[in-house]
Structures are given as structure tokens and as C-alpha cells.
């Protein structure tokens, strides 16, 4: 399995002559980690995670920031514990909860919040909270199946370069190219243009066309202004 | 979960790399506080798009219609200072009260109705409230014996409400309406005492000032209670507000960022774009442009139309 060190080498290849300007910690922090996250956002099936949590009696919501901070999309909610190793019922129940919305619940039953029982539905409240309805009268185990962003690669301290990045190795070439492109974006007009071209190739032109046009206009304006800026005082 | 400090470090790393910024000598002025301020703006932009919601329990008060959610508006008690002294700058004394059993807590606000000053309660004893930071905003900024005071509790002590999505009273959803519509439907609704049926906001300028129509009459409480688990209390004493909130009131550098990890990149790139855009030079405008494009790519993947 490729290690973080090998992934860093791969990024360096794509950075070309600029590689010496990028310390490993910077490549991890501002290149590899954003690239890993972007790829997982683009394809939510790349990284998913099961988290078993306890919904206390009378409670309605779970805060994803606490129970699954790397989640960005809740895909399924199950009543019962269905983690990687152990599958068990919760108070003799094991069933998927049906997705709904708060508005739909309120339309059907204005007193929805007062209802208690065994949860059979779930709904999101914004992006941080997940609610299970009706509110349970006893503690229940829930399993959240979420699309997640991978844990950051840990080379920031340069002590763990031998670890294996979370995303599958088949994606590493793509990760390295995206990381290099993101790193190039902040390196002045010429390099930024190269970074944009790389991202356009990878993700399609639509997202970056306007930025590329604007960048070219700014470069032209800058080139026109440049001679005036360097004219020595009193030369005229 | 990263801290604000971690994000600031990441943002500074990009800005410091920018040649134009370094050569312009402007970087030293871009301190962490300014970065955090822009980060706050980026978070507020997300908050206005209803990304961060919360259920907020507000104590319903009999005959009270207006609830300004971001203000110090829940009245705990009123009284008169009887300390016998003048010019007391850090405490309020009232031997006719028991502040401890009345529900006054640290963080509440004392307002001097005679002098106009106010201060935050830092310690609560039976007959004395201490405000170590003193009083501000009045004529003398002090308490004299005989001054009338009111103790207030913040309605939503830990969050800043951005907008209200729904309101429940007595455990039931209230209908949203506007006052003019209610005038047509139920003229004289202000005088009706049938308990809350509708909710509205005071006006578009103050979308966090909640109006309950008609005002609650069923509640048995006139003194607010702040239960740890409001769901277990009498439903008639609770308004439940589904609100969009700003998730990061605390701006302490060591505070954990109160958003899911997936939002970090969108916030970082948006903040950099805001900074670089402020400079107005062609090189930094270029940085701003590409960072804004990158922020949008991350935002779109998170289902946010535009940061």
C-alpha cells in the first residue's frame, strides 16, 4: 500500500520545478487534505462510515459535530447497532428509519414534537443535527450511515509519513494531481493559470471558466500597468 | 475537529506565500483578529443560507407577545436596592429578595432603572448580586439605595439566531402569518386570549424578534425556569423555536470550529478570497478570483448554491 511519503513524491512530480518551495507539511495541509476532501465531496460513495450512537430517552436530536464530525451527508439511519463488527437490536428492535422532513411531520401532525414511542423516522435539521421521531421513552441505539471526508493525513508533524492515507490507493494518482493543482493556485498569475487548467481538465471547464477569464483580464491589466509602476521617480 | 487557530494558520500560510502581498509590506497588518473577523463573515454567509439549525427552548411568559431572541429580554425579577449606601459600583443589595431561589444565575444582566446603567452578574448570593466588571451605560454607573432594578436573563444564551424557521407552543406547530393578514382574518386579535395560534416576526429588519399571536395565557409560570431538559417540563411553559443560527459565537483562537470538517475548505478559501479581494491590486485580485472559484466548487459539492 502506498504511504503518505509516496503520495508526497507523486504531488512533487506534478508540481515540477516548483517542488522545492513546498515543505511536506504545507503539501499535506494545503494540498493533500483539501484534495482528499474535495474528491470525497464529489463522490459521496468514496468514503462512508457507520457510527453507532445512543439517543437518550426523551431526546429528539443528535449533533453530528459531536458524534460524526467528518460526516457531510447522512445516507441512512438504523434503529439498532449495526457497526462494522457487531450487529444488535435496540430494545428488541432493528429496522431502518424512513427519511422525512420536519415540515412533512408538522403537516401530518401539528403536535409531532409531543409524540413519544419507538423512532421510525429521521430527518435533518440544517446540516449539523439529525432528529429521530417519535422521541424515544428509553435510550435507543441508532446507527448512522454517513458519507464522510477522510481523516486528514498526518504528516503535518513529519512524524508519520509511513502511514497509509485513508482513501483507496487506486485514487492516489488523482489525489496527487488535484493537490498539486490546488497548491499552484496561490502561486501568482502564471502558476495559478496552470493550476486552473489542471482543475478544468479534472473537473470540467464550467466551474473555473469565469475565474480563468477574469484571471487573464487581470494579467493583461497588470502587464499594462507594470511599466508605469517601475518607472524611476523623476525619469520624465 | 480543528480550532479557529488551525484555520487561521492555514489561511496565513496561503496569504504569506503571495508574492504581491509580501512585497507590498501589507501583511503585518493582517493579524489573526482580522482573519477571524472575515472567517466570522464567511460563517454568517453560510448561516443565512439556513445551513445551521437548532431547536431553542424559550420560556413562555403569560400575556407576553414579543420575544427578541438575540436580546436580554427574559425578566427574572424586579426590586429596589436597599443597601443604605450610595455610589455602589460592583454590587446590588436587596434584603427583601432571595436571589438564589429566584433563579438568578451568573451571566444574567442587572439593569438600574433609575440610573440607566447595567452590568453582568458574576456572583449570586441570597441578598447580594455581584457585578465584578462594574456597571456601564448610565449617568453615574453606580447603585444608590432606593434605585429600582431589573434582573434579565438572555433568551438564547449560547447562540446567535439568524432567522426563525418555525415555532411551537404547547408542543404544537404554530402557523406563520403577518399582522396585516391577521387583521383581515381576526380583527382585534391583540385582545383575544385564546393562547398562541400564529407566529410572525416583528418586521423584516428584525427577523429575530419573534411575535406570538395571541400571547400565551395558559402557562402557569411568570418566573422563567431554565431546565436542563426542557422537554421534560410542562409544555405550556415552553416555546420551541426552530431557528437558523450562527454556529460560532466564540471567537477565542483555541475554540473548536463549530462546523463539520467538510465545511473547512469552503470557509478557508472564501476567507482568503475576501482578504485578497480587499487589497484591490491586480495580483491579489487574481488570488481572490481563483480562491473564490475554489470556494464555490467546495460549496457546490456540499449542496450550497453559492458562498
Tell me the distance between the termini of chain A.
65 Å
Give the biggest beta sheet of chain B: 4 strands, antiparallel
Strand content of chain A: 15-25%
The mean pLDDT of chain A is: 82
Number of strands of chain A: 10
Give the SSE string of chain B. Answer: HHHEEEEEEEEEEEEHEEEHH
Q: Which stretches of chain A are low in confidence, meaning pLDDT under 50 for 5 or more residues running?
A: 225-236
Helix-strand makeup class of chain A: alpha+beta
The computed structural class of chain B is: alpha+beta
User: Judging from the principal axes of the Cα atoms, what is the shape of chain B?
Assistant: globular
Poorly predicted runs of 5 or more residues of chain B: none
What is the total number of structural domains of chain A? 2
Strand percentage of chain B lies at 15-25%
Assigned CATH class of the largest domain in chain B = Mainly Beta
Mean pLDDT of chain B: 80
Name the helicity range of chain A. 40-55%
What order do the helices and strands come in, and which of them pair?
The complex is a heterodimer of chains A (236) and B (307).
Chain A: H1 4-15, H2 24-42, E1 48-55, E2 61-63, H3 64-67, E3 71-79, E4 81-82, E5 87-88, E6 95-96, E7 98-99, H4 102-108, E8 121-125, E9 129-133, E10 140-148, H5 172-185, H6 188-203, H7 206-230
Parallel strand pairs in A: 7-8
Antiparallel strand pairs in A: 1-10, 2-9, 3-6, 3-10, 4-5, 8-9
Chain B: H1 4-17, H2 19-24, H3 32-48, E1 53-59, E2 66-68, E3 74-80, E4 91-93, E5 109-112, E6 118-120, E7 123-124, E8 128-130, E9 148-153, E10 160-169, E11 172-173, E12 175-176, H4 179-185, E13 198-203, E14 206-213, E15 238-246, H5 264-279, H6 282-301
Parallel strand pairs in B: 12-13
Antiparallel strand pairs in B: 1-15, 2-14, 3-9, 4-8, 5-6, 5-9, 7-8, 10-11, 10-15, 13-14
Helix pairs in contact in B: 1-5, 3-5, 5-6
